[in-house]
Amino acid sequence: MPPPGTRWIGTSWKMTKSLAEARRYATALTDAARPGRWTGLQPFLIPPATALTTVRDALPLSAGVLLGAQNAHWADSGAWTGEVSVPQVADAGARLVEIGHSERREHFGDTDDVVHRKVRAVLRHGLVPLLCVGEPASVRAAGGSVEHVLGQARSALAGLDDASSVLVAYEPVWAIGEHGTPARPDDVAGVVAALAAELGSRIQGVLYGGSVDRANMHELLAVDHVSGLFVGRAAWDVDAFVAILDGAAEA
Asked: Which of 98, 116, 135, 171 is catalytic?
């Protein structure tokens, strides 16, 4: 794990990019990752499962970029057609696994119990869980953001003896996606502070994700207790991702 105080800056490609596109992106990122350029940062990249080995082969460990998977099953093996296990994504190069994204929760049946099982599986195999939490617009409008997000986090981490490698990504559902409403620092501060107060030193840190781009990244990084950023489509172009990393390093 990186030293305390490190800022995590990463992106997930979701269901985009061919193998050729993934290779070009990873190669360009490797070329940009000269020693000392991103001191104080832990960059991470989460391609689709089809591109994990392609990115791994084009992105050497010396680049300092952590490779992640967008999902993994809680079982190590078995008759789970269409799924991939934590050992499989680790074998393909992943060292981090995204869990509980709102799209997985809404469309693929990832209940709080399923998320909890997946967190345990990732920890069991020594990988970093990137636990996504966030409230929909209706909950926000009713004033229930903090309790909703804390409930997701409590359920996911319940009964864990050691959650020190867990990253929590606060991604309000109303702020993510192509039609999301960018959050202001005041929208983020209360929930992030509540997560920090609840989880404290139990976890690696709290990231913010949701319509992050170069225009708002600095004010979001300045929010108390934000340990980094989980960037979406604004980082799908490698030059844009490099610019975001440069900006975070300068900050």
From this structure: 171
